[in-house]
Amino acid sequence: MKSYKTDQIRNISFIGNGGTGKTSLLEAILFNLGANSRLGRVDDGTSVCDYQPEETKKKMSMVAKLVTLEKGELKYNFCDTPGFDDFQAEVKRVVPVTENIVMVLDPGTGIVGHTEKVWEFAAQTKNFRSFFINKLDKERADFFQMLGLVQETFGKYALPVFIPIGREQNLKGVIDLIQMKAYLTEGDNSKEAEIPADLKEEAAKHREKLMETAAETNEALMEKYFADGTLSSDEFLNGLRLSYQQGTFFPVFCGSAYKNIGARELFLNFELLFSSPAAITEWKGINSATHEEAVRKLSETEPVSLFIYKTQQEQHTGELVFFKVISGLLKTGMDLLNTSNDNSERINQVLSLRGKEKVDICDLCPGDLGITMKLRGSYTSQTLSDPKNPISYPKIEFPNPVLSIAIVPKTKVDQEKCSAALAKISEEDPTFRMQFMAEFSQLVIYGMGESHLNNIIDKLKTRYNVQVDVDKPRITYRETIKKKTGCEKKYKKQSGGRGQYGHVVMEIAPMPIDKVYEFEEKIFGGSIPGKYIPSIEKGVKEAIEHGVLAGCPVIGIHVAVLDGSYHDVDSSDIAFKIAGSIAMKDGMEKANPVLLEPIMEIEVKVPEEFMGDIMGDLNSRRGRILGMGSHGKSQTVKALVPEAELYKYINNLKSMTQGKGTFAMKFDHYEEVPANLAQNIVEELKKFRVAEAEK
User: What gap in Å lies between CA 443 and CA 425, rounded to an integer?
Assistant: First the structure.
């Protein structure tokens, strides 16, 4: 593949809710350009983009794909993205590195939560946005009704560039309002035709709105438009381009990807209307040597720097590293510095992708996307740059996981391979977490939803040959005491020869539960030699590892050693450790022990119309509302909710809000479990510990 200048590149992402036809639209474009000998179908498993085994099996996109094509004097980097919230990290990766976004919509489902979230994110990153209203060949699909919904949701700047010819099963083609030409699709071909007489007035009305939009970008254009009532073709197109870049024009295209209607004409507008990376002239970062702000222009004369937006494990080729060149001319053989970890990395190969097909590239100009392989330790959100001019670009902010499950390797061999496999998965997936809960010997994995976690398990099985079962994660309950009490224990053992003797008198008292425990010595007169005090403390620590109610660790307890006695011959470290331990257990029994549960602080963000349902649901989960606020068109609720009440909460939230709700949570504190619930929890924990001991 030859080298292209920055202004010859178009970086374009296809984004939208699951099932809107993003992948099918890209497949139609690839077919029209001759990149695929037949029109790929997601449902048939023949898609160029969805080539991974999990995607072919489930007939849905799960990771962002890079598909690079050349046409004429331009190079196109297309990114196809998943449409489900569980895989939103894949969208978060590509939006910052692709200037142009096509939001694909389905009139049958309208505008759902994922689309609005992505729109908001793209607005923050200042991407140039457009729409493609797809599936207009389906029953009850109404372009103008959907256009009205788009304008109501996203604003008056969403204006049609295409309008359909025909509707539902009689959809025949589209009218391009910029060119004022009709295109009729017959089979796999599209031909130019006269605008149907019954659509000329409609087409003229919408073209007039486009003309006004173009004129409003410039005072001189506005004066000419008022004087002449029209603009030249170049003035019209240049005005629309500028308005598109200024965010005062969101082009709306339409058609049917499945029937290849509108896809060919959409592609023509990528060259005419869409922006090259040169539209964004610079990237800001931090000089990793001086820690001061640094700026790189998208110029070949600048020092080389590139930003890694994705890594991906390939079963037979290893790890692929996806990046965007920000500045300089990247060539193979270059040695660059990873400014995140100070590793030196050699770029041995520069490649591009077309589905799973890899294509060698000579060099890459600023703004271009590419991949490389065999780096030593460079991952998502890291920067590689000229060692003499180091720079770090801002990291992508990924959402925190919202759902967890426990996994249990089936065999010892699976157990040995499991951690290494999960570590590999976590390197390529920034929204995946794992944690070994030693308290329950349970390996817990965290993700963005059930589909995400199911995909992780599928990867374990198919890619790494690790077989696992799944279980519900256990809650990390704790115990504490409610009152002060004294305790005294004498450990005495005689079995011939030297015996064991340790005698302690202690006082235990409750303290703030944000602390585990405090240990204090208050002995006067040397009733216990100082050398045995550390042994008593060891015994206390051992005792509070397993409380007297349900065997949970104890927190919020103050221990003071007041008195005791010792024997010159029989006393020992082990004797005082045992005495301290049994005294502690005896004291906790008398100090009104209670069970504590983890309380999470959650922030829920939903459209205003769902607030009543959300508030009621949080109350039913024993939640306490901390406050409410506004966030754009959405409302936010902060609340404290027991962790036990939040298992699979994301599923309920999506159901209640039509997929438009999001939430984040973090641990806040421990709190006493209500008495009416505590007994059942204690009994269940006791049964669990007995079962574990019998294994």
Answer: 15
